[in-house]
Amino acid sequence: MIQSRTEVVTALLLCCGSLLNASNEIDVTPLQNHPCGDPFRVSSAYSVFDAKVDQVLNCSTLLVTLYAYPYVNVDPPPITREVRLAGIEAHPDDPALCTSFLSEHILGNQVELLANGSKSVDDTDLPVVISVDPPIGQLNRHLLSSGLARYATSAPYELNSWDDCDYRRAETSARESRIGVWLVDESE
Q1: ∠ CA 128-131-132 to the nearest 5 degrees?
Q2: How far apart are CA 144 and CA 132, in angstroms?
Q3: Per the structure, how many domains does the chain have?
């Protein structure tokens, strides 16, 4: 159940951010006919954490300070934590492209981390989806649709089926549009 304004905004960014095409235009395909299905019919049991990005370690790994924990009635002290962006990895031909973008656009900024509800901040591997202010929205998807990273198969329950499908489609669209790391056709 959504209980706060932050959770409402996050839910909208997760859904609507995923409905943006590579040009950041809304994909108006009716949801019941969307190739990935209806995002409202998949399990999205994400826990939402408020965080600040302290360091970009690489294209898919960030060092963050967590300020708020879901479902906790007290304000625990902030903790620094390494997190991994779910569903993406650097393209081996240009790993600096993604890292540079992250350093320029999110380093030092407040973000929302969305982690699978079965994960906790104490887990050694914490895959997350990051939500930031528009025009970026859902960061993981933005990196794929902009050709800044490539899709990486996720472990079970890291991403819901909608996001997994949508991430694959975002990378395919970037490849077909030959943007970012896909400027050069790999078959050439």
Answers
A1: 140
A2: 15
A3: 1
**Phi and psi torsions of 110, nearest 5°:** -80, 140
- Parallel, antiparallel, or unpaired for β 79-85 and 127-131? parallel
Integer Cα distance of 76 and 69 in angstroms: 8
3-state secondary structure of 39: helix
Residues 161 and 18: their CA atoms lie apart, in Å, by: 12
Q: Is residue 120 domain-resident?
A: yes
Asked if the structure places residue 188 within a domain, the reply is no
Measure CA 65 to chain center: 17
Phi-psi category of residue 177: left, alpha or beta, with phi > 0 → left and psi -120 to 50 → alpha = alpha
CATH of the domain at 153: 2.40.50.90
pLDDT tens digits, 75-129? 678 889 999 999 999 998 888 999 999 999 999 999 999 887 777 667 777 889 8
For residue 72, give both structure tokens: 């906790």
pTM: 0.77
The torsion defined by the Cα of 140, 145, 149 and 155, in degrees rounded to 10, comes to 50
Instruction: Copy the structure tokens of residue 78.
Output: 């902030």
Cβ-based neighbours of 120, under 8 Å, separated by 6 or more? none
| Boundaries of domain holding 62 | 5-181
Retrieve residue 117's tokens: 């509800």
